[in-house]
Request: fold
Amino acid sequence: MRALRWNYYIDGLILIVLGVLAMRYPLEAIMSVGFFMGIGLIASGINYFSAYYLFGLKRFILFGVLDFIMGVYMCVQPGITAFVVPFVIGVWLLSVGISRVGMSLWLGGAEVDGWWLMLLNGIALIIMAVLVCMSPLSSALSVMMILAGVLIVFGVLAVLEGCIMFRQ
Reply:
């Protein structure tokens, strides 16, 4: 199980890099947000598939399929995706947040150290999903900054999850 932490590290680092790029180049990120997110989601989906194939963790198939399909769609249709990006990102954040809350509760019942970090991550993602969907037309820049912040926080928490939950 210790080797599984590398999947968390890689997933977290991918999300942190995407968040930093979005903050560093906000105008360019707005123009190509569909493509940026699509590449990141494809990479994240492949990473989840590797966790399944390497460790036989079937629950990661769903995460991998969802991330991969959404990533391909965002790469193929970046114009449409950029137009509806607050809702697309909001739905994605909500689904991942709910999944992480459920997984953390399962891990808490199994008495895994650090399960509460995943719970915290899930709750933060759900809050950010609500914030993104509440004001989709207010400003593309504010949505981009919220998204960049969420990606960085999500990535840092994923790395921490890998460090603490799989340290045995």
In short: The radius of gyration is 15 Å.
